[in-house]
Amino acid sequence: MQIVCDVTTPPPTPEDARPGRWTPAQWLGALLLVAATLLTYHRVWHADYIWDDDAHVTPPVLRTFHGLARIWFQPGATQQYYPVLYSAFWAEHRLWGDAATGYHLATILLHAAAACLFYRLLARLAVPGALLGAALFALHPVNVESVAWISEQKNTLSAVFYFAAALAYLDFDRGRRWGPYGLGTILFTLALLSKSVTAVLPAALLVVLWWKRGRLALKGDVPPLAPWFGLGAASGTFTAWMERTHVGAHGAAFHLSVADRVLVAGRALWFYLGKDLWPSGLTFIYPRWAIDSGSAAQYVFPAAAAAVLACCWAARRTSRSPLAAGLLFAGTLFPALGFVDVFPFLYSFVADHFQYLASAVIAAAVAANATMAIGLLSPGARHAPRAACWAVVALLASIAWRQSGQYADVQTLWRATIARNPECWMAYNNLAAEMLSAGRTQDAIDDAVAALRLAPDDAAAHATLGEAFSASGRTRDAFGEFNRALELEPNNAAARINFGALLLAAGRTKDAKAQYQTALEVVPDSATAHSGLGGVYMRENNIPAAIGELRLALEDGRPEASTHANLGTALMMMGRANEGIVEYRAAIALDPKLLVAQFNLGNALQQRGETTAAIEQFRRAIEVAPNFAQAHYSLGALLLGAGQLDEAIQQLTRAVQLAPSYARARQLLSQAEARAHSAQ
Questions:
Q1: Predicted pLDDT of residue 422
Q2: Is residue 566 a contact partner of residue 539, using CB atoms and an 8 Å limit?
Q3: In this structure, is residue 160 part of a structural domain?
Q4: Is the same domain home to 599 and 667?
Q5: Which of 377-396 are b and which e, b meaning 16 or more Cβ less than 10 Å from the residue's Cβ?
Q6: DSSP codes, 536-565
Q7: What pLDDT, in 10s, does the model give residues 81-138?
Q8: Which residue range forms the structural domain that includes residue 617?
Q9: Residues near 480 by Cβ (< 8 Å), separated by ≥ 6?
Q10: Which of 384, 407, 430 is the last residue in one of the domains?
């Protein structure tokens, strides 16, 4: 397979061989790439968040300029240390807040920009079929995961810097001017700070230079790229450390021998090549292979890969293109081949988004070979095969359009994943969590049980089942599941937080406190743990401590209506009514149906002497919960005090109907009826 033409191949066509300024036709090609990309991903425009997207979109604690500084200078402030990426998210949040559409459109446009830069790069290198190659990259369904998943904006953003840096370096190499070199170094650094897999760029440039010239000059070609190699090595090392210490790439699933890793790498190479050439059965999570270094059959994959590269090496004097393509493909994939631990290896050794940049190599290779083959035909015979090539592009775009539909929302994604990978325990567990959020408790239990059937020792699934049992009132079963989850994974902060909530609801305040405190030792800035601990302190009547924890919860995470409501109550207990009212209103703004906030705001307004406002507020509380007797009583009492006897009697009567043992309501109703009788 030839990625570009050399002395052994036909010369490039005129439209492919313009390394300088673009012609109007090339600008038109770029515009068509952008339009085709936007159209292909139309279904993603209004898609929702999926999986960990909300962990990447800027949380409240980082939305200020101080937060922006933390993104850059405090590793661990964000899920991964990619400050350029998270700065982009920070800027995007200032533009459109939490609206998922904005992030999706930004990611799609970045992918289109990367495709245009790739087109320019191929044209700069005189690769035959540059536009066809760029179109294959832009519209190939294997890249849907990178474009439709907001979290993978790191792929599309880093690709823009990656291709731009490559173009700048080629400009430097042509004239040895330091301006392009400085620009390229800046762009390469931005790429690394968006996603560290771009560290392969200097090695890729050496391969490209060797392919173009047939040799490398040790003194001329290597020294300019030495600083880039240093930057890439530093970035890759730091990212590996972050994956292990902050993201969670540790544990038994990552205990692989050198032989195991070679087997993973060999099989992954062929897997990715297969998906590029025949994109069938694409899914969000692929089955995790069983690696057995004692099985001779498993060595076929790495042996075959080594044999192909050896053949390409032997044929290099005839054509350098096959070896260059193989080295670029394998080298670009190297960070994801299993030699460096990354969190996704917990459930699969391969993922579509791992091969985002590498897929460009195959796209260029296929386009170049097809274009050169067509060039060997007579002019009159070229129209049909050219049309066939673009028909293939259209077919791939239609598959990508269909594939992007599974990213519409979380439930759709996990159901599609289960349909294509029925053994995916993680998909079942995550679907169970979604069912729980939707209030479908029995479905959540069923999905969590399915996850545990596939992975009996998965702590997260036990914790999810514990939550589902708790929501369904099966407290004893919930205790058992949470205890099992923490036996398997003592540092599972999420399990401890949810267990703490269950213990607090059961009145076991001391035990709940211990769970929240341990969770905060694992994740010091956990908003949920701070909020839960605030609830514990309120139970203990330690109101100042409760206020402190609840404020930390609001600083460290996305604002939760219940946290604002609890803080409002704590402030009211301290006699700080004005502040309490502010918190209740903040809670209602986030969740207008939160009864405790609606009702307590009425009480706070009443306490401050704002009778008219309090009456209206109790009416709103009754709209939220028509059968809440206490709201009817409070409204009736205020109406009685305001002299509105008829409506007061109606509200108090309703309170007694809803709660016949409500003595205060009965007593006040009697008083109201007596006043009404005496007034007649």
A1: 96
A2: no
A3: yes
A4: no
A5: eeeeeeeeeeeebeeebeeb
A6: HHHHTT-HHHHHHHHHHHHHHSS--HHHHH
A7: 999 999 999 999 999 999 999 999 999 999 999 999 999 999 999 999 999 999 999 9
A8: 571-622
A9: 466
A10: 407
